[in-house]
């Protein structure tokens, strides 16, 4: 009986590594092809959701494709398109720049255009543009994957070595990898058996380790990190005020980069507070934000001297997102139509571009426990410059067509513009009319279509389950 068990164990130790080695010898190309096919399949699902204007669902599929094939520029580019549609501009910029870092030649012109539309400083225009990934009726993610250059054809695979014996037939030489896998497999199996036996003797120690590995940080660990981030936020607010003196593309780009690094640091801090990030990870993010902020402050000082940080700019912010608009050349007027009344509001370039495309940007508001909704300009103590970098508590966003102020829309627009009517303040242009009633009807129709689609899918699923049950009964 014991001899039979020993022979069985020896068989496992010998055959398993051999099978593993033989399987591994043919797996690289097959696994790469399966990975690419799986990523493309998930992308196609996201593309259909994108065409249906379900941008959140599309982003989820594009995220999955990027996770399956992390080195593919195409998936990052389409992530950027979906994030842009969701008004998550900083994340959209990061995804587009990530796509460019993976493949500098992929969608170069489109990435520059998208960055410019979102208010970020674009890179120098490329010499080889490519087509916009859209159809005449819908805005569609790219369908053209990047292809290798024709001037650099792939090298042919090296010939497989062979040995020709006297009989004239060729055979492959002995595979040293097979012997290596055999020895490694035997060693691994012995190690796993030993570890399994050892784990049976230490159940209490392992459970204790599991219970202490997810402890949340203490307040004395959080305080110094939060203090450093608040210093970064205060410096960036000063740079926002400095732009009142003159709009400078380089300073705006440095400010945007530092703001994105700061937002990443705040998110990392929140993860650390929940126990899902390490202190060292938070510290790295804060150091990166601090370095980017110092570059922006130094550039502002070089442009304007001490005058940049003395008085503050006007309390003017984007009606939609509350982004500070100290300089007239960084603001646009957007006419909003509700019923028969048209009201002009001030907006930042990203929000104005969305409005010009017929997509109402979300409005930043605060909802009280009683259900009352306040526009950001009505919230006591809210400052567009400060709270762009230090998030104000209890703030959220809602669709522009759903926001109905208790006072007139004109009064709210004037408050957001620093107390003056938007038509009385300088701006570099006027967007096309944004009809909130039409936007509301379109949103209701889209919601009804999605609900009908989901109901039909549910009925089809129930029908399949009933049919399968009958088939197996």
From TrEMBL:
Sorted UniProt keywords: Signal
Protein name: Tetratricopeptide repeat domain protein
Gene source species: Cystobacter fuscus
Gene3D superfamilies assigned: Tetratricopeptide repeat domain
Keyword Signal: yes
Region of interest (Disordered), residue spans: 116-170, 202-221, 453-473
InterPro entries: TPR-like_helical_dom_sf, TPR_rpt
Keyword Signal among UniProt keywords: yes
Compositional bias segments (type: Pro residues): 151-162
UniProt cross-references to SUPFAM superfamilies, sorted A to Z: TPR-like
Signal sequence interval, chain numbering: 1-21
Compositional bias of kind Basic and acidic residues: 459-473
Biased composition (Low complexity): 129-150
């Amino acid at each position: 009986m014991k001899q039979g068990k020993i022979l069985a164990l020896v068989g496992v130790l010998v055959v398993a590594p051999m099978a593993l080695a033989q399987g591994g010898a043919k797996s690289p190309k097959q696994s790469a092809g399966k990975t690419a096919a799986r990523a493309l399949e998930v992308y196609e699902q996201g593309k259909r959701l994108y065409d249906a204007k379900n941008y959140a669902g599309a982003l989820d599929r594009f995220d999955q494709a990027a996770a399956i094939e992390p080195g593919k520029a195409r998936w990052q580019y389409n992530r950027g398109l979906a994030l842009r549609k969701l008004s998550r501009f900083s994340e959209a910029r990061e995804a587009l720049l990530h796509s460019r870092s993976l493949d500098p030649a992929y969608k170069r012109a489109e990435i520059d255009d998208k960055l410019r539309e979102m208010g970020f400083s674009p890179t120098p225009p490329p010499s080889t543009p490519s087509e916009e990934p859209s159809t005449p009726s819908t805005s569609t993610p790219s369908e053209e994957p990047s292809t290798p250059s024709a001037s650099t054809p792939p090298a042919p695979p090296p010939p497989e070595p062979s040995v020709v014996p006297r009989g004239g037939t060729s055979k492959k030489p002995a595979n040293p990898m097979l012997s290596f896998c055999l020895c490694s497999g035997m060693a691994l199996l012995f190690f796993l058996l030993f570890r399994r036996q050892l784990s049976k003797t230490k159940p209490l120690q392992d459970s204790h380790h599991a219970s202490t590995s997810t402890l949340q940080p203490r307040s004395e660990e959080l305080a110094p990190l939060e203090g450093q981030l608040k210093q970064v936020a205060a410096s960036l607010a000063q740079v926002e005020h400095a732009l009142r003196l003159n709009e400078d593309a380089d300073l705006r780009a440095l400010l945007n980069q530092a703001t994105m690094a700061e937002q990443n640091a705040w998110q990392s801090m929140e993860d650390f507070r929940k126990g899902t990030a390490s202190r060292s990870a938070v510290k790295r993010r804060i150091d990166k934000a601090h370095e980017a902020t110092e570059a922006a402050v130094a550039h502002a000082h070089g442009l304007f001297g001490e005058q940049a940080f003395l008085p503050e700019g006007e309390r003017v912010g984007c009606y939609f997102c509350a982004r500070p608009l100290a300089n007239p050349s960084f603001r646009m007027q957007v006419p909003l139509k509700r019923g028969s009344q048209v009201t002009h509001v001030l907006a930042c370039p990203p929000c104005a571009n969305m409005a010009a495309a017929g997509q109402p940007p979300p409005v930043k508001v605060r909802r009280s426990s009683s259900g009352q909704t306040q526009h950001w300009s009505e919230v006591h103590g809210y400052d567009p410059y400060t709270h762009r970098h230090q998030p104000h508590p209890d703030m959220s966003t809602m669709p522009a067509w759903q926001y109905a102020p208790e006072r007139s829309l004109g009064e709210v627009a004037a408050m957001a513009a620093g107390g003056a009517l938007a038509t009385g303040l300088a701006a570099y242009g006027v967007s096309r009319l944004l009809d909130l009633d039409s936007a509301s009807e379109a949103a209701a129709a889209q919601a009804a279509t999605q609900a009908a689609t989901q109901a039909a899918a549910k009925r089809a699923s129930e029908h399949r389950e009933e049919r399968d049950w009958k088939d197996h009964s």
